[in-house]
Amino acid sequence: MGSVDKRIEALERTYGEASPSQAAEEERARLLEEIRELGPAVGERAAAEEAEGNPARRIALDDLKARIERRTLGDGL
Do residues 42 and 4 lie in contact, with contact meaning Cβ atoms separated by under 8 Å? Predict the structure, then answer.
């Protein structure tokens, strides 16, 4: 989940700016798209690991989704 964490941190930096530049907005859009593309694969791995008795990835994925929703709430994303 390290690469996803880096993407989330980049999104948080982008959202933290008072008036993000065009480059920051483009980076934010790119990161959101990457996260969307990772969703199904990460979800499948999380389900497989949880079936084996290890819910850590699912818990991390749930936390990630909650962080994204908190950050994008009101943006229509």
Answer: yes
Contacts of 17 (CB under 8 A, 6+ apart): 24
Contact (CB, 8 A) for 31 and 46: no
Asked if the structure places residue 53 within a domain, the reply is: yes
Q: For residue range 5-43, list pLDDT tens digits in order.
A: 787 777 777 776 545 577 777 777 787 787 778 778 888
DSSP 1: -
11 falls within a domain: yes
pLDDT at residue 75 is higher than 70: no
d(CA 40, CA 45): 9
- Residue 48 near residue 3 (C-beta atoms within 8 A): no
